[in-house]
Amino acid sequence: MAELSRETIRDTAIDCILSVAPEAEIDRLRHDRPWREQLEVDSFDFLNVLVALETRLGVSVPEGDYHELTTLDGLVAYLEARLAETPP
User: Fold this and answer.
1) What is 35-73 written as a DSSP string?
2) Tens of pLDDT along 1-43?
3) Which residues form the Carrier domain (predicted)?
4) What is d(CA 46, CA 21) in angstroms, rounded to the nearest whole number?
5) Cα dist. 42→4, 21, 33, 34, 83 in Å?
6) Are 4 and 86 in contact (CB under 8 A)?
7) For a pLDDT cut of 70, what percent of the chain falls above it?
8) Cα(7)–Cα(11) distance, rounded to whole angstroms?
């Protein structure tokens, strides 16, 4: 996969969240607070977001890393780091 910009990764993450929670008001999301709490995304929907991210970006998130995905900024940073690890 070609190197993606941080903005593209962020947009993809938001698209995946919206695919599970289409009513989410992403523009009101505070980046320093847990996104799941703000958008009322339960654990099942969270897993569906992760499946969508794996499908779109090819990044699988082990359960032990879920704590790194708390904020939207954390989610984007995690994806960015994992994509940088992936060989071309």
Assistant:
1) HHHHHT--HHHHHHHHHHHHHHH-----GGGGGGGSSHH
2) 568 999 999 999 999 999 999 999 999 999 889 999 999 999 9
3) 7-83
4) 10
5) 28, 10, 16, 12, 26
6) no
7) 94
8) 6
